[in-house]
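Input (structure):
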């Protein structure tokens, strides 16, 4: 995943960094995601992509690829096996869309 879509000015980049490093903000986000999202100057498209867990759309909007994985971990928790945790699978499913099943079939075979 290249940086061709990365837009440093996208405010979701700031949100994810803040959630990653600020325990109080992360707790508030877990309790009321909508309230925290309203505190950031995000576009409605960014808010909707976060609400629906549409990581592919966030990538297309300009969220840094590293921060995509961080957001997945924040939203879904962490797993024990690299690449098989719920966050990793949600990220892969969102990014691959219709190609997900084929990818998974090739991966296990």
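Output (sequence):
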């Amino acid at each position: 995943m290249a940086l061709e879509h990365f837009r440093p000015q996208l405010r979701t980049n700031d949100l994810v960094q803040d959630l990653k490093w600020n325990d109080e903000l992360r707790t508030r986000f877990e309790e009321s995601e909508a309230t925290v999202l309203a505190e950031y100057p995000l576009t409605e498209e960014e808010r909707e992509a976060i609400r629906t867990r549409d990581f592919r759309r966030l990538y297309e909007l300009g969220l840094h690829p590293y921060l995509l994985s961080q957001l997945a971990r924040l939203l879904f928790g962490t797993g024990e096996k690299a690449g098989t945790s719920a966050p990793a699978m949600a990220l892969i499913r969102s990014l691959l869309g219709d190609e997900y099943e084929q990818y998974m079939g090739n991966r296990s075979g």
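Notes: The domain at 11-108 is CATH 1.10.700.10 (Protocatechuate 4,5-dioxygenase; Chain A). The helical segments are 11-21, 23-31, 33-38, 44-51, 55-61, 65-76, 86-96, 100-108.
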